[in-house]
Amino acid sequence: MQNGARIEYDYSIAKAFTFATILFGIIGMTVGVILAFQLAFPSLNNLAGEYGTFSRLRPLHTNGVAFGFTLSGIFASWYYISQRILKVSLKESPFLMGVAKLHFILYFITILLAVVTLFMGITTSKEYAELEWPLDILIVVWWVLWGISIFGMIGIRRERTLYISMWYFIACFIAVAMLHLFNNMEVPTALVSGYGSWIHSVSMYAGTNDALVQWWYGHNAVAFVFTTPIIAMIYYFLPKESGQNVYSYKLSILAFWGLMFVYLWAGGHHLVYSTVPDWMQTMGSVMSVVLILPSWGSAINMLLTMKGEWQQLQTNTLIKFMVLASTFYMLSTIEGPIQSIKSVNAIAHFTDWIPGHVHDGVLGWVVFMIMAALFHMAPRMYGREIYSKSLMDTQFWLQTTGIVLYFTSMWIAGITQGMMWRAYDEYGSLVYSFIDTVTVLHPYYTIRAVGGLLYLIGFFMFAYNMYKTATAGRVLDKEPVNASPVAA
Fold first, then answer.
1. 200 is an annotated ligand-binding site residue
2. What CATH number belongs to 12-472?
3. 61 a known binding residue?
4. What's the CA gap between 183 and 411, in Å, rounded?
5. 270 marked as part of a ligand binding site
6. pTM greater than 0.90
7. Which residues are heme b 2; high-spin-binding (predicted)?
8. Range 257-284 burial, b when 16+ CB lie within 10 A, else e
């Protein structure tokens, strides 16, 4: 309430990004399942010619999920959360509304162009930074527009105190801007040499320097796309959905600054046993282990928010999504530091344990949290009740089963790979050939593909439920009332 009048929030941009989240989620995850089946059954690589091969589809999958699905979910949540915790509506500023619309349009165009160019094989070949320079410039433009939205909304806010979610959104904006600019310093080859495609470029860095900058960027893209804005979301949606206050605001601040100072130094663990200086490899490993503290600080804070209210897990599927998301965040942030220890890395690196780690974090933490956020937002954005809560519950259990199948199969496959690659006989010769490991891993690849398929089916259920909610859900007279804490 403001001066006795209720603020009318504008959800048009949040709805647009919600649509993009679902669209790019379907594209990215469908491609991911195709890739999983191609690894289990290589003959599937030949079904669609060059455009259907693993090498052509893999960057489409990673970019589609990381920058199509995830960023759309982050932006949808931002345009919903910011108005509510700052107590100001986009309607009140035609300028900021125009900025938000332009942000969505340019973002959507960029991701569509990314899909087209990656399908065509146009890529820088730098992991998570495959898009060529014209698209990199477009990204800078709409990222700056998002920054104008963030600080513009803060500038006209009515709520004096900046809730912790805002801190994490700001960190995402500043860090990703820095990471993107430095890692994507590239020189268009046609401008320099006069030869080659106008869109092709080469990195400004070379050799070890290129690797250092790339994995400073790559690991921190995980930190500031898959972590900080998702924490911002759960710090808002879990208390709202459960009716509980955040367990410890001080712990949220300590965890925030811990993440900020430590995460930026951990990227070197991707380059253990490489030509990178040994002290830098060691620093990456040490900082990764230290990173357990702020990561678990955030996760424990989220779980303790439900202290005394665990019975809500029996009746509220969104609470189940968010609590399990926090649990997977804890799992992922203990697993990563363990893998960064040099003696473990000697077995784990280049094995399937690594994608197992990535996917229990992304599928269990990031995607679960974004879906829970959109489910919470939907009745308030569309003024309609969730179409089917039983479908939501079925989706939860189906996707949870899929994740468990995925990461357990990849853990076993990865450790098996690492041990077989290192096995020597009494003469110092390798016991197993590379094809021996491929043969042994086939059952685990099949289980991974089935787990991914179950998860994808669950995502289609989510998309259908959201569509039906927006178009056919029971019309609500007022916003749903959040659960209220039980009196002590």
1. no
2. 1.20.210.10
3. yes
4. 31
5. yes
6. yes
7. 357
8. ebbbebbbbbbbbbbbebebeeebbebb
